[in-house]
Amino acid sequence: xxxxxxxxxxxxxxxxxxxxxxxxxxxxxxxxxxxxxxxxxxxxxxxxxxxxxxxxxxxxxxxxxxxxxxxxxxxxxxxxxxxxxxxxxxxxxxxxxxxxxxxxxxxxxxxxxxxxxxxxxxxxxxxxxxxxxxxxxxxxxxxxxxxxxxxxxx
Length: 154
Fold this sequence. Notes:
- With about 150 residues, this protein is of the alpha+beta class.
- It has one domain: predicted glycosyltransferase like domains (Thrombin, subunit H).
- Helix content is about 20%, strand content about 30%.
- The chain is built from four helices and seven strands, in the order H-E-E-E-E-E-E-H-H-E-H.
- It has a six-stranded antiparallel β-barrel.
- Strand 5 and strand 6 form a beta hairpin.
- The longest helix is centred in the last third of the chain and has 12 residues.
């Protein structure tokens, strides 16, 4: 069998001495995870959260966890990253919170199944709940302090 001088993309990657010399890029095999690189602590907390859009429509959802800078809500109905909503929730002993939040990330239910068989980071991502991670924006100092106390369990 005669070998041609034309290499496949896989062969170039396998035999390249320095991957920087190659223009070939692969799609990552595992979905990125944010575990371990959080700026602020978070705590698992199930709260009833009302998501209100700019037109006044309200969608009742449930939180998975909360931090002083954001909240993750469980939902199969997903908004686009970057959309801004009013989040209304009550924490027992701390009162009612009404905070502006921007959708920072979306965990789609179908995407979870794609990574379930990969193990490692993929397995960690596959256990994530479908929903949206909101980043709080324009938080007043008093609200910030109250959210810190909620996460600290005070």
